Amino acid sequence: MPVSNAPITATIRRFCELTGISRSKLYQMLDAGEIASVHIGSRRLILIDSYRRLLVRLQTAQAEKRARPASNTEGDTR
Fold first, then answer.
1. Domain range spanning residue 22?
2. Given 3-state DSSP classes, what are the helix, strand and coil percentages for the chain, each rounded to the nearest 5?
3. Can you tell me the distance from the alpha carbon of 47 to that of 12, in angstroms, rounded to the nearest whole number?
4. pTM of the entire structure?
5. Residue 2 within a domain
6. Which parts of the chain sit beneath pLDDT 50?
7. 15 burial level (CB within 10 Å; 0-12, 13-18, 19+)
8. Count of CB atoms situated within 10 Å of the CB of 46
9. Could you give the number of structural domains in the chain?
């Protein structure tokens, strides 16, 4: 089984440094369940794979949105 040097978790500080996401936005995302974390002792570690999955979901949603034809609102007098 190949071993990767890529980290599987990151501290709050390190995650924010790596991603450019602010601490407050990260906590919002954690509260919303968009990103997962674990507590080990008093440390909270962000699961990097959960961030990768979020990015895939966002990319898919954006691609689907671009693929939908724009609705024609001309002539709509409501």
1. 9-65
2. 45, 15, 35
3. 10
4. 0.75
5. no
6. none
7. buried
8. 26
9. 1
